[in-house]
Write the structure tokens for this entry.
Amino acid sequence: MKSSRTKIPRTNGQRKREALLAAGIAPSQFGKRKPAQPHRDRKHEAARGQRKHNGDWD
């Protein structure tokens, strides 16, 4: 006599959770946005560096 396995259907949410856990993403991070990085004005930084280092090179 064959033993039959009953298959329990999983919801899409359960599948997504299992996939994220398998990928190593913590459940506390699910659905959270990455924090924004502050805007960096590279022209301003370059000009400031030039002002800082324009002394006499004796």
Notes: The two ends are 96 Å apart (CA to CA). The helical segments are 12-22, 42-52.
